[in-house]
Amino acid sequence: MLAWIDRLPLTLFIVAALTLGLAPFVPEPHLWEKLGMLAQGELVRPIDIFDLILHATPWLLLAIKVIRSAQAR
Description:
Layout: H1 3-7, H2 10-19, H3 30-40, H4 46-72
Helix pairs in contact: 2-4, 3-4
């Protein structure tokens, strides 16, 4: 099921995490803002929850790629 992750290069996941995962960069990365809202219990609006999922997905995929690559060695 996750074989497609194995076929894609690691650099693709790194670029996705650094661009979509952190954009917009100013005044602070969006992911940090949403994680802060989650920690404070302020993440209640559906758009904010969607935003967290959108910005966290590249980081999650990068983590899966790195873990699968390490296990394959």
